UniProtKB/TrEMBL annotation:
Domain AAA+ ATPase: from-to ranges: 53-200
Reported function: Required for vesicle-mediated transport. Catalyzes the fusion of transport vesicles within the Golgi cisternae. Is also required for transport from the endoplasmic reticulum to the Golgi stack. Seems to function as a fusion protein required for the delivery of cargo proteins to all compartments of the Golgi stack independent of vesicle origin.
Protein name, per record: Vesicle-fusing ATPase
Section of the entire sequence shown: 202 to 488 of 742
Domain of life according to the entry: Eukaryota
Location in the cell: Cytoplasm
Species name: Vitrella brassicaformis (strain CCMP3155)
Similarity comment: family membership: Belongs to the AAA ATPase family.
Length: 287
């Protein structure tokens, strides 16, 4: 009925802080506004407004900035089922017609549920990592993976299948925005484009906090380490590179505590702590 209350698509205990995503608050808020907000309202209200839900979005940006992390964590926020995450190249198959069938199969469960339950169906999220592997500009040369126009066409026709998609949200991810077939990016298809860029200084502090949380909580980070200062020294680092920096620093701490002549006889395995000197070595090592 029109009186129906909000549809609870989010877990009641959902807490942004716990998602372990640093420096992407604005991007996350945009994603939720564009793709999820309308789905909280009763279908009758959406009918009154005469709009359709967004069917698809594209997250794009350099490697290691948290695109996959966001995709995975969206599942944590939602009450509904786990998103299906597929890797672009995986969908491709050397047998003629098999790739198209793989794409059809991805949508099948959601389509069947919609046929049975209509608007009562849960939201199905399908995430395509490296979507550029499938959706390169059509007409560009057929490469060794057998990418062909018919795969792009199959995906487009699935996205355009009107009714069936009220319960589907497609999220594509790519490092190569420039390579994507424009037809895929039009309104009604992957229409919302969210750039996931390199973190700014504040974002880097958040990411450093996330990836040193356990060692701080267990008092294994020396007091001489300033995360703020590390953030200023890691300009142009991605989140993944910051995580790598922490891992490298930790390896230097391990190194101080072992006997390199005989790895089976560590000097001190109990009192390991990661300090600023370890981070200095790590900064020289990575990037
Ligand atoms: P690619 O385009 O190469 O697939 P991506 O943008 O999907 O890269 P992720 O796989 O999400 O990058 O990042 C790799 C890892 O780096 C994450 O699992 C996480 O540990 C860390 N990381 C990246 N970005 C962030 C971030 N913003 N906050 C916290 N950790 C991050």
């Amino acid at each position: 009925s029109r009186r129906a209350t909000a549809r609870s698509i989010f877990r009641p205990d959902f807490n942004f802080e716990e998602l372990g995503i640093g420096g992407l608050d604005k991007e996350f808020a945009n994603i939720f506004r564009r793709a999820f907000a309308s789905r909280v309202f009763p279908p009758a209200i959406i009918e009154d407004l005469g709009i359709n839900h967004v069917k698809g979005m594209l997250l794009y940006g350099p490697p290691g900035t948290g695109k996959t992390l966001i995709a995975r964590q969206i599942g944590q926020c939602l009450r509904a089922r786990e998103p299906k995450i597929v890797n672009g190249p995986e969908v491709l198959n050397k047998y003629v017609g098999q790739s198209e069938e793989n794409i059809r199969n991805l949508f099948k469960e959601a389509e069947d549920e919609y046929k049975k339950l209509g608007e009562g169906s849960q939201l199905h999220i399908i995430i395509f990592d490296e979507i550029d592997a499938i959706c390169k500009t059509r007409g560009s040369t057929r490469d060794s993976t057998g990418v062909s126009d018919s795969i792009v066409n199959q995906l487009l026709s699935k996205i355009d299948g009107v009714d069936a998609l009220n319960n589907i949200l497609l999220i594509g991810m790519t490092n190569r925005f420039d390579m994507l077939d424009e037809a895929l990016l039009r309104p009604g298809r992957l229409e919302v484009h969210v750039e996931i860029g390199l973190p700014d200084e504040n974002g880097r502090v958040q990411i450093l906090n996330i990836h040193t949380k356990r060692m701080r909580d267990s008092n294994r980070l020396e007091n001489d380490v300033s995360l703020q200062e590390l953030a200023t020294r890691t300009k142009n680092f991605s989140g993944a590179e910051i995580e790598g920096l922490v891992r490298s620093a930790t390896s230097w701490a391990f190194n101080r505590n072992i006997n390199v002549q005989d790895l089976t006889k560590p000097k001190d395995v109990q009192n390991i702590k990661v300090g600023q000197a370890d981070f200095d070595l790590a900064l020289n090592e990575v990037k």
